[in-house]
Design goal:
Layout lengths: L1 H14 L9 E5 L9 E4 L6 E10 L6 E9 L5 E8 L12 E3 L2 E7 L9 E12 L3 E7 L8 E2 L10 E2 L1 E6 L4 H24 L1
Parallel strand pairs: 1-11, 2-12
Antiparallel strand pairs: 1-3, 3-8, 4-7, 4-9, 4-10, 5-8, 6-7, 9-12
């Protein structure tokens, strides 16, 4: 038992506590409360859907975040991105506007060289979507070949960030609506039948 405890203590000393469980995540927020929304329901698909993108759990112990590159994908047969923007502030160096294509949005942002690295919960940007049916938004780093979420010290957050998805669907009509509708139709039929008998 002592050996196992010593091995665990040595592992913590070498790897550090953040090497075991990652709290960093990129997520979607549809209602402006800065909390992750993994399932979002809309009344219908007639109105645009706005998704804010956040990264959370960034710690200054790893150097803090100074830049990001993000890909958001979705089914282009049912959803389209009509606008996208990088949050400014904090991302004061936006080298290129977000690129919107069929089924993808690519965005990236950097801090000004004089700005301190960021930590905690950080707004990355926003995407405005239209859709004809339910769809899923999926986030990922921009390129597996480069550091997309990086720190001042060169720490690569890409390896520890949990990139989340969000399902967007229409609110289903409750069964009671159908029962009420059939009951009203039955009453209308009875009222019409009663008029025909009286005449």
């Amino acid at each position: 038992m002592k050996k196992m405890f010593s091995l665990l203590a040595l592992s913590l000393a070498i790897i550090g506590p953040s090497g075991f469980a990652s709290a960093e995540s990129v997520y979607f927020d549809f209602n402006g409360d800065m909390a992750a929304d993994t399932n979002w329901q809309v009344a219908d698909f007639a109105n645009p859907i706005i998704a804010d993108l956040y990264v959370d759990g960034i710690d200054l112990a790893d150097g803090g975040l100074i830049g990001f590159g993000l890909n958001v994908s979705f089914d282009p047969l049912v959803a389209q991105a009509v606008a996208a923007s990088v949050a400014n502030p904090p991302w004061t160096l936006v080298l290129a506007p977000p690129v919107i294509s069929s089924g993808n949005v690519l965005m990236e942002g950097l801090l000004n060289f004089t700005d301190p690295a960021l930590s905690g919960t950080i707004l990355l940007g926003s995407i405005t979507m239209t859709a004809t049916d339910s769809f899923t938004l999926t986030s990922s780093d921009k390129s597996p070949l480069s550091i997309d979420f990086g720190s001042e010290t060169g720490f690569n957050y890409d390896n520890v960030i949990a990139f989340q998805s969000a399902n967007v669907s229409a609110v289903p009509l409750p069964g009671a609506v159908f029962l009420l509708g059939s009951g009203l139709a039955g009453l209308a039929g009875l009222a019409r039948r009663g008029k025909n008998i009286i005449s």
